[in-house]
Amino acid sequence: MNLKIYDNGQELFVKFSGELDHHTATEARKKIDRKYKNNNFKNIVMDFEKLDFIDSSGIGFIIGRYKAAKTRDGKLEIQNANNKVIRILNMSGITKLINCK
Fold first, then answer.
1. Which of 16, 55, 85, 95 could cysteine-pair with 21, CB 3.0–4.6 Å?
2. Tens digits of per-residue pLDDT, 5-55?
3. How many domains is the chain built from?
């Protein structure tokens, strides 16, 4: 998995490519949390356009970032997820908590 992390001064943006699974979720969490917690961001926007696969570890990763944003009165948003990933997000119930565009 590859991550591209950038910001606009107010929001943290993360572009994923590859797979978000038990092999990659820990590394992704460390990189994103370091940038998020060391700055004064409220919101996190995740772009899943090039994400091919997500498993339960990826779901846990998303919930963790959702909780982090919520503690700062912010929000987490998921953008550009393909139908396969959206199906998994729907089955997990994430789409009831997080705005998925």
1. 55
2. 999 988 999 999 999 999 999 999 999 999 999 998 999 999 999 999 999
3. 1
